Automatic annotation (TrEMBL):
<dbReference type="InterPro" id="IPR020084">
    <property type="entry name" value="NUDIX_hydrolase_CS"/>
</dbReference>
<feature type="domain" description="Nudix hydrolase">
    <location>
        <begin position="155"/>
        <end position="285"/>
    </location>
</feature>
<comment type="similarity">
    <text>Belongs to the Nudix hydrolase family. NudC subfamily.</text>
</comment>
<keyword id="KW-0378">Hydrolase</keyword>
<keyword id="KW-0460">Magnesium</keyword>
<dbReference type="InterPro" id="IPR000086">
    <property type="entry name" value="NUDIX_hydrolase_dom"/>
</dbReference>
<protein>
    <recommendedName>
        <fullName>NAD(+) diphosphatase</fullName>
        <ecNumber>3.6.1.22</ecNumber>
    </recommendedName>
</protein>
<dbReference type="InterPro" id="IPR015375">
    <property type="entry name" value="NADH_PPase-like_N"/>
</dbReference>
<dbReference type="InterPro" id="IPR050241">
    <property type="entry name" value="NAD-cap_RNA_hydrolase_NudC"/>
</dbReference>
<dbReference type="InterPro" id="IPR020476">
    <property type="entry name" value="Nudix_hydrolase"/>
</dbReference>
<dbReference type="InterPro" id="IPR015797">
    <property type="entry name" value="NUDIX_hydrolase-like_dom_sf"/>
</dbReference>
<keyword id="KW-0520">NAD</keyword>
<keyword id="KW-0479">Metal-binding</keyword>
<dbReference type="Pfam" id="PF00293">
    <property type="entry name" value="NUDIX"/>
</dbReference>
<dbReference type="Pfam" id="PF09296">
    <property type="entry name" value="NUDIX-like"/>
</dbReference>
<dbReference type="InterPro" id="IPR049734">
    <property type="entry name" value="NudC-like_C"/>
</dbReference>
Length: 296
């Protein structure tokens, strides 16, 4: 079987970082740009009548005022994003979050949407210098903020790990360890995840988080892939790991409401019936689906 693509790991636009400090080029590029408007809830207008879905981009002269966030360029177009209000009209394209529609967008639009949301979220949270408290202003096409004292502040990303723990057994009887948070819809279980702590490798975080959440010791930690998760500013690092299902499950840190082992047949039945699986945009869905198909 063919390995799936990570929905938010796709991109077809060159970020063209060398353009960011060229103020004249940015000013000229804005005049011919296509602009993605993202509202305060991280939504953009999306046409869901097409396959794949399509973002609604507007000309620069129709974009709201705000920091002009340079997203990149391709052979045909230059792209910016602006935080602003979305039209209130109904009957056409409607507001959606990248979490809801990311997996249904094409590579270009998925990449633009997640980049715009991540960058806009960062700007919302860094209006003041975290050291001096001085106001900051956007520079370099939105990729730097500068305080009154000249200090430069760059966007940050918080690394987090997410892991599909399984028993290494092939076929329908193979089992995976999934957990459940209390606030999720009834019956939903997913892969285990947590933030990488200071001074810690991602692999060490996998071992620690699984032990903290379930009491299970894992081995053979293997990197699978990553994707941004801008809610508000994470980078999800996906792994697989092996464990013995005979180990007792103990919810050490009480972060999970429940954790248990599921067979491939049990999980596949849930997926095929469109029941309580993680959202298709998530790396959890990617890890589980690839494990079901014997790819990891």
């Amino acid at each position: 079987m063919t390995e799936r693509e990570l929905p938010l790991g796709r991109s077809a636009v060159n970020r063209a970082a060398h353009r960011r400090r060229d103020t004249q080029w940015l000013a000229d590029a804005w005049k011919r740009a296509q602009v993605l408007v993202v509202d305060a809830d991280g939504r953009a207008l999306v046409d869901t009548s097409t396959r794949p879905y399509e973002l609604i981009l507007v000309a620069a002269d129709a974009a709201p005022d705000g920091d002009r966030l340079f997203l990149g360029e391709d052979d045909e177009q230059v792209y910016f994003a602006v935080r602003g209000e979305l039209p209130a009209e109904t009957g056409g394209p409607e507001p959606h979050t990248v979490r809801a529609v990311g997996a249904s967008l094409g590579a270009r639009d998925a990449g633009l949407f997640v980049e715009a949301v991540a960058l806009a979220n960062w700007h919302d949270n860094i209006a003041y210098d975290p050291v001096t408290g001085a106001p900051t202003q956007a520079r370099d096409g939105g990729w730097v903020r500068v305080s009154e004292g000249g200090a430069q502040i760059f966007p940050r990303t918080d690394p987090a790990m997410i892991v599909l723990v399984h028993d290494g057994v092939a076929g329908p009887a193979g089992r995976a360890l999934l957990g459940r948070q209390a606030e999720w819809p009834p019956g939903r279980y997913s892969t285990l995840a947590g933030f990488v702590e200071p001074g810690e490798s991602a692999e060490a975080a996998v071992v620690r988080e699984v032990a903290e959440e379930t009491g299970v010791a894992v081995t053979d930690v293997r990197y699978v892939g990553s994707q941004p998760w801008p809610f508000p500013a994470s980078l999800m690092l996906g792994f697989s790991a092996l464990a013995d299902p005979a180990q007792p499950i103990r919810r050490v840190d009480e972060e999970l409401e429940d954790a248990r082992w599921f067979t491939r047949d049990e999980i596949r039945a849930q997926r095929d019936a469109n029941r309580v699986m993680p959202m298709t945009t998530s790396i959890a869905y990617y890890l589980i689906s690839n494990w079901l198909d014997g790819i990891i």
